[in-house]
Amino acid sequence: MAEDRNTLTPRGKADPFWNSVASFGIDEIFVLPEWISELKGEKTPSVTGKEGGNISGELEALTSRVGNCRACRLCEERNSIVFGGGNPSAGILFIGEGPGANEDIQGKPFVGRAGKLLDKILEAIDLDRDSVYITNIVKCRPPGNRNPSPDEVAACWWILEEQIRIMKPGIIVSLGAPASRTMTGSTEGIGKLRGSIHRYGDIPVLPTYHPAALLRTQALKRPVWEDMKKLKKLLDELNLPRTGKDKA
User: Fold this and answer.
1) What backbone torsions phi and psi does residue 83 show, to the nearest 5 degrees?
2) pLDDT tens, 53-84?
């Protein structure tokens, strides 16, 4: 880590996120000075309105820290920072690639056509928005709904990392190639990544197709259903979703 520049470099190649970023030839990213202080173990002021250890309170504090983030070019055209939504205590985390047009306007994740399809997918395995938490690897809409670029993912990574640290999910479901590659550190396509359980640290990661892909290609519904059956089995084994508020 450079002491005289606001940059962060990987300490090793074991971390899935750095594996993914390094595959694009990136070995250094811009970060804000306060992030460097935190990573170095220095105390930074916390912004919380609730007791420490309260998941919802910690996420609210994180939202305050994010503020009007301008760490990458996505801030230039956004209407909203789409932080996430659902039950952060449930232990089930769905991660997509980035907000779309409807999400950018409403400030909520997965509220367009893909979101309505995701609701149906969740319902098919006895889940809903109150029993999962949904977010994206980038919190601002990429113009034209394009895939987020590696440097945009890198700039936003600390937020997702903090969300995971706070929520301590029992399982992560990554929706689509960008999210799945980021969470697994692989450069493989989603067709090869899905169908197997990967790991983010100690957390199992189940990649599957993004609901938007199903809207374009009906044939993908069957493999997604196979993935959801696998997810349902895992949830039963892990006793998820968790019951009770703010317990992880």
Assistant:
1) -75, -45
2) 599 999 999 999 999 999 999 999 999 999 99
